Amino acid sequence: MSASPDGIRLDHLYRRFGEGEGGVVHAVEDVSLVVRRGELVAVMGPSGSGKTTLLSIAGGLLAPSSGLVEVDGVRLDLLSQEELTGFRLRRIGFVFQTFHLIDALSATENVELPQNLAGVRRPVSSARADGLLQRLGLAGRARSLPKTLSGGEKQRVAIGRALANDPPVVLADEPTGSLDSRAGQEVIELLHDAAHRDGKAVLVASHDPRIRRFADQVVLMEDGRVTR
Fold first, then answer.
1. Mean pLDDT of all residues in the chain?
2. In this structure, what is the dihedral angle of CA atoms 45, 52, 3, 210, given to the nearest 10 degrees?
3. How far apart are CA 142 and CA 159, in angstroms?
């Protein structure tokens, strides 16, 4: 699927912490980046380089000190807090290193949850959740609780949850960091499919060198700046 411009646009972003306290930290410094729909872009760099801060800004979880954030054609700074919450729910899928699944809910129910929050009810939400889990190779684990799943299975459920509302943008922060090599490879391939088969703009922060082979663009960061 060809790339479309309505993905993520970050323009001259800065994020500073500790202003007024005598010890300013420049977590992100003059970063500009475009991730088009149909592309997977990997942001790589050492710990403390600003990767997670950059993803948090792109996802509207953290406001930049200055600069422009545009997601799916919408400037996030023009949204009220309530509008931003609804926008994140429907238009951005998040995948985290530590999964963030709800222990009391089954795999299907975890994937249903963002749909329910967006107003989609059963049987539509459960049918979509089960369809996603089948696609992710978890049809036989749909009714299982997270505590019974392997790390790779948990992350596949988390990817299903991120895709549940069919968002145009997916952000993944160290999605293979807690996984063994085989499970990590599977997760990278699923994120690649989300971009290239489903036409989503996928931005991944990762230390995993295998992601280079699947990325349409690799951005290197160090000390808050893009180095290449």
1. 92
2. 40
3. 14
For residue 195, the one-letter residue type is: A
Tens digits of per-residue pLDDT, 57-98? 999 999 999 999 999 999 999 999 999 999 999 999 999 988
The strand ranges marked E within the chain are: 4-17, 25-37, 40-44, 66-71, 74-75, 92-96, 169-173, 201-205, 217-222, 225-226
Tokens of 196: 């290239």
Phi, psi of 91 (to 5 degrees): -115, -10
* Third-level CATH fold of 4-100+168-226: Rossmann fold (3.40.50)
pTM for the model stands at: 0.93
Token pair recorded at residue 34: 């475009």
